[in-house]
## 1
Amino acid sequence: MPLAVEGDGTAAGRARVLLEYTLGMSVAVLIAGALVFSCGAVAREIEERHIQLLAVKPVRAAQVWLGKWIGLLLINALLLAMVGVFVYGGIRWTLRSGRYSEAERAQTGEELLIARRLIVPVAEDVTAEAAARLAQLPAGAAEADPERREALLRMLGRRILAERATVAPGGSKTWVFRLPADIGTGRRARLRFRLAPTIEPGLISGSWRLESPPSSEGVTVSMGDALANGGYIDVPDENVSAPGTLRVVFRNGTAGQTGTAVFDIEEGLELLVNAGGFEANLLRSLFVLFCRLALLSALGLTAGCVFSSPVAGFLCVSIIVVAMMGHYVTVQSVNDIQAPHAEDAGGGERSRLAVFLQNAGESMVKRTAVVVEPVANLNPLGPLADGLLVSWAFAGRALVLLGVVYPGVLGAAGVWALWKRELALPGD
Amino acid sequence: MSEQASRRQGAGAEEARPEGVSPVIEVRDFAKVFRDFWRRPRVTAVDGISMSILPGEIFGLLGPNGSGKSTTMKTLMGLLRPTSGSIHVLGRSPRDILSKREIGYMPEESYLYRHLTARETLDFYGRLFGLDRATRRERVAELLELTELTQAADRRVGEFSKGMARRVGFAQALINNPRLIFLDEPTAGLDPIGCSRVKKLLINLRDNGKTILLSSHLLADVEDLCDRIAVLHKGRIIARGRVGDLLKKTDKVRVTFSAPPAGRLAEVVASIRSSVGDCPEMDHPAIDLERFFLDVISGVQDETVGADAGVRLPLFLKYGGRSS
């Protein structure tokens, strides 16, 4: 990938290719490898009868499972280390190659090859307004079943947020950031804003005002300067000294001089505070990826304790696909309204079947979400490629959940299956 | 019905056990039914057998293919679970870890890891028994010498011939100085010299207090080795007992004497005929083919053929030797 794809021609683009695509693709290959190795680790031993010599020795099933798992972890660690060295070396070599200017390299270092803490503004409460609008809807919509009412409220809430993210000429929008107590001092902080993709940034003028109540000191930055800075606004150190709040107000220019500014609903404005170096961030990310591979190895190993290696592989791939689809549906259902039940479209045998299938699907997604979402949310690749902090707490959660709890449950199941199973095949 | 036939008919029944002797293996009404994926019974491999194997004997399991020998052996080792009945090995369940500490198993096929050398293989299995490094090193060296694999100790098992691989399998069955040894076709694939060595070794092990359960199709080897046998057919024991007792023809007598001078032989025959009324059958006694082969080979080799040299057990396998 890094040999074939240059990125957007900038140093940051090249580094992003290495971080997002090369590392991502390499991890995908490692995942496939982890599944192949782990599914066959016990299953092949049973099929090739090696386990018969093992099973007559004073070795417990738990020792067999654990020994295999640790062996797989060592292989995963070695391969992941090689990938990490390649990616890191590629990035450093790229930046030192002389193809990019000093300014580009500095910008890449500031925006990508760094670990920044992401602080989001206080969420706007749209519940009351959404309920009020729901009450104004034609009769019937508000009396729908609780799930449908919930979905309508979510939709109305997003609509209200979208309206509030739109700043007409002469208007303003305010964000408030609550600064955590441990933010520290002397750390460089920047605000990053994102306009909706359909908006041409050059047409927007106005100003940004940064304040830290109760202090009356504030900073004003023009929109032009902020856009020239790549969508970033530097925040003076005194404005991010904890504890306290940071209040940011955008005032759009006057009509005739500016267009309507529409900010991204989720990432309209974010506060980024430098929290560490890229190397440590990369190491923590690799550690989290290692924990994910550990979980997959445990899954394949347990499947191999029950089924033959091809069946175990198929089962594991199926589980992963279902989990990914469930995660996608879960993420989408936060934003989108659910599809109307088929019975609304006009009854009959077919629609009852459709309703049953839809309900079954929704039920399955909800049930799997309890297990899948914690795992899906522990993915470091996105933050790493965005220069965001992969914290020790994040790595610790990954270790506990992906390295201990889930593999522990799978391991217990695998050990039980191995203990229960007859290890001599018929016909031996 | 001949006396022998009636003896065989009754030989399916279990013999009386000597008093005060606890069997090493005790099987009561053991049955094994293999089921398919949907738990439907498909094959009754063993149909209610009972037997006891006493300490310090070599016990043979015989039977045609599909008679239930392998199923019985594997259940005794804990690789299969009995459908019904009870099995005790060394006083415990076959799946008990404590039982497995004192068991050695040599399978019919080589189920060894092909990527390990002979030395690594023995060391690996020695570690599974919890042997310390010094003990492992010593035993590995002794077993490699016993199985004549010292020169090939550092070659991978995947490069071995079948006979060499079986010797490694035999060595790993002894690494823990087991009390009870399961052997599945121990002499299959071995040349006559190797075969003779193995038989001498097994007898040596028996004489040093080991109990051996072996399964074999090579009836001559079973006859040479086993103290008692059980013959299985369609999952049942149809004959069992001491080999000598089962094979003896008690209705006939064989007398062997030096060949008399010509002319005197007729007098001997006439005397016998007048005494017993039977015309005796006479021929020159013959050695078996194995003995003949070994004698011929040793006659053309400078040193004593390994098989004839006797087999010296490592100290740890002897009575009073260090246990695992």
## 2
Amino acid sequence: MTRPVAIAGAGYCAVARSLEQSAGRLTVDACRAALADAGLTAKDVDGIATYPGGGDSVSSFYAAESLGVPKLNWFEDLFGWMPAGITPVIAAAEAVANGGCDVALAFRTVKRPHGRPPPGIGFGARVGGDMQFRAPFGDSMTSSWLAMWARRHMHEFGTTEEHLGHVAITSRHHASMNPVAPLREEITLDDYFASRMITTPFRLLDCDFPVDGGGAVVITTLERARAMAKPPVVVAGGVFATGPRPDWDQWDDLTHMASKYAGDRLWERTGMSAADLDVAELYDGFSWLSLCWLEDLGVCAKGDGGPYFASGKARVGGGRVPVNTHGGSMSGGRLHAISHVIECVKQLRGECGDRQVAGAEVGTVTAGGGIMGGALLLTADR
Amino acid sequence: MAGDRPLPQPDEDTAFFWNGCRENKLLILRCNDCGTYIHLPKPGCWSCGGTDLAPAPVSGRGVVHTYTVNHTPLPGFDAPYAIVLVELEEQKGLRLVTNLVDVGPDAVEIGTPVEVVFEQVSDDVTLPLFRRRKDGAA
């Protein structure tokens, strides 16, 4: 059995640089907000999925018990390398489509360890696993891994630091119109170049902004969603992808990420193309990632992502497909793309006020970078 | 480089690599069925699925494929320092993460021809680092 599926509700808990609330409290707040948006309560829920894989959140069972869900017919806790924010959304959509459950919550909560962060992955006297080939050379952070991919892209396609700066400026411009975004003050190229270098070519303003927070969506059948409080947003497709060599160093071509495979697969599965898109919420753990996603989805030609941002085409009102209309992770906070899902839902319902993309009917949400990626295609109920 | 950098903990699949470095030999796992080099070491060949694999010596010659200059302080490293990804000449896409011993962080360039040089950093660990190749040939 395969049933058409829709997102019926979406909501955030508090999102800020640092919050007192526990990961459990944030999860309950986000799930209750999403349920209220759909006009439902926890009594209506029979499925839950989440990614607690970073040790920064709570499990499906913890959420179910805290929310007062009577009984789960389907649940999934996801771990490991994956596009963390949208994986539970895609998993829940598939479970509903297949009849595993009828009303599912998909959430991603991020509660950061406060105090000084650990110095990258693989520190300690001795390092095993894959990191034994990276950590001894000071290559212990995802920022340095992806910086090397970005550098290769710059080398082959002429992408510049100024192009990356325009990704940051665009992000902040959109965030200035999003009351939920923690960073809302517009920035200039001078601000960008003045921000401290992290690992070349990435400056501080190329990085996402670590926050405490989270979000959730309610997924159900399209038929049920049509009777709920808000207009349904149809899940037209959801895919995961990696490439033939899922390794950060041995990856075949560092100028494209798993985004290439995810993009190809998304269009193959949905029968649609980049020409159908009205809005794109593209994962931006670092500036270059959303630029690369944009190219690999086919919104612009390979290598033209930098000029696309620099010429203002990624802005609401500026080009055919605006990017990260909520400010993305760079200005909206690092919520592993659950915020991108929520923003896309709101855009397709026409709820975004000053940052609304006029007449938006088709949107994509992507998550992940480097060796793993996932993409969702959402549409209005047409 | 400063001391106290993290050191490798070899396992059953990777010990040959670090043992080779201790003897100043760069060894890369190779598939006896199809000849493909396999790095990082895995129990099967990514190209043909074969499991008849053995370490094979490589030239240690390559070029800088890409790099980043890290400005973030990490224990054991004096920032800023360059992390480079060297592509070995034996096979397209066969790459090692490493550091350059004779090129400062401001002078690293993609395409620079390099060769391996071994640096003992503890009683039992020798790291494969790289230096600019004197012959200059790419």
